[in-house]
Amino acid sequence: MTDLVQTPNKAVALNYDGVCAPTLSAKGTGEIADEIIALAKEYDIPIREEPDLVDLLAKLKLDEEIPRELYVAVAETIAFAYMLKGKVPGQTL
């Protein structure tokens, strides 16, 4: 499962396999953020605007697991993605 979190001109993407902690799969600002968002839209990946969360996640390295301190905020984002897709955890988005 991949989920995207964005703010204007900044975006991060998360990957969650349902087993391990979510990881940062993409991040960028400006045109790169626009490309991340465009790809998410093209592949029907849910997008959620969370400026404070994006700022924190953007500090991580690519493929790095999210820190424990962000589990609740990221869990809410993942739950949001599942809800939009009418799915439950364990199902592929």
List the SSEs and their pairings:
Layout: E1 2-7, E2 10-15, E3 23-29, H1 30-42, E4 47-49, H2 51-57, H3 71-85
Parallel strand pairs: 1-4
Antiparallel strand pairs: 1-2, 2-3
**What is the CATH H-level superfamily?**
secretion proteins EscU
Helix content: 25-40%
- Total strand segments: 4
What is the tally of helical segments? 3
Number of domains: 1
Low-confidence stretches: none
Q: Give the ordered list of helices and strands.
A: EEEHEHH
Radius of gyration: 12 Å
Mean pLDDT: 87
**What does the overall shape look like?**
globular
CATH T-level fold name: name from scop
Question: What is the CATH first-level class name?
Answer: Alpha Beta
Classify the secondary structure makeup into a structural class: alpha+beta
Largest sheet: 4 strands, mixed
Task: Give a quick precis of the structure.
This protein has 93 residues and is α+β, with helices and mostly antiparallel strands. Helix content is 38%, strand content 24%.
What report would you give on this structure?
Strand 1 and strand 2 form a beta hairpin. The chain is globular and about 35 Å long. It has 93 residues and is an alpha+beta fold. 38% of the residues lie in helices and 24% in strands. The model has no long low-confidence stretch (mean pLDDT 87). Strands 3-2-1-4 form a four-stranded mixed beta sheet. It has one domain: secretion proteins EscU (name from scop). It has helices at 30-42, 51-57, 71-85, and strands at residues 2-7, 10-15, 23-29, 47-49.
